[in-house]
Amino acid sequence: MSLLLPSEPRPKLAVLGLDGLPLGLARSLGASLPNLRRLAEDATTVRAELPELSPVNWTSFHTGEGPEAHGIFGFSHLDPQTYALRVTRATDVACPTVFDRLGERGLVSRVVNLPNTYPARPLRGMLVAGFVAPELNGAAYPPFLADKLHEAGYKLEADTSRGRADLDFLLSELRATLNSRLTALDMLWPDLAWDLFVHVFTETDRLFHFHMDAVLHAKHPNHMACMRFLADWDHALGRFLTRYDALPGPKRLLVLADHGFTELKTEVSLNTWLTRAGLLSLSGPPQDEWDASKITPESKAFALDPGRIYLHERGRFARGRVEPIEREGLLGRISDGLMALEYEGKPVLKAVHRGANAYPGATSDQCPDLVVEARPGFDLKAKFDRRNIFGLHGRTGTHTVDGAIFADSHGARPERMRDVGRIILQHFDITE
Question: Which InterPro entries match (predicted)?
Answer without folding.
Answer: Alkaline_phosphatase_core_sf, Phosphodiest/P_Trfase
